[in-house]
Amino acid sequence: MPAMSPAAGDVSDEVLEEACYYLLELGLTPEQVASHLETTPSRASRLAKSYAARIRSKEVVPGEFDREFWERVKKEAEGDERLTFMSEKGFHHAWTSELRKLDGPALMSIFEASKDFLGSDPNQRFLDVPPPKGYDPLALEREVRKAVEVIGRLLDEKWRESMSEKRKASQT
Description:
By secondary structure, the chain is mostly helical. Helices cover 61% and strands 7% of the residues.
């Protein structure tokens, strides 16, 4: 898992406290948190305890938004991408891990709808051009194209799994 933030010296202790607290709550070890936040395990534990004390003293109020934010950070750091894709009902967002749970026909439906969206876009040829600084008028299309690539890989995995299962079944 890559580092989740800039060097610890570049981030305020308040942010590090919150990060350590929530990441430890989400099941990471002090060693993992320290590695990702570029600090020591003892400091990560100390910062988490400090934040817990601030919660107990009501100096800070833990919220669902904060927990969800750090959960998203953790997922992204672990390589679980949040994707934007199309279906017959419009645009959707999901984590790669959520899409991996879908069956082949459902994935194929999403894949085809997303490909159709990209194919109907007259600006598709510009997707290979780097986006301008500050504003990308094709951001949505770039996100859908990334989703098509990921979903294509997931479909390939599903196909390989089904072929493996069929081979095993035919051997018994």
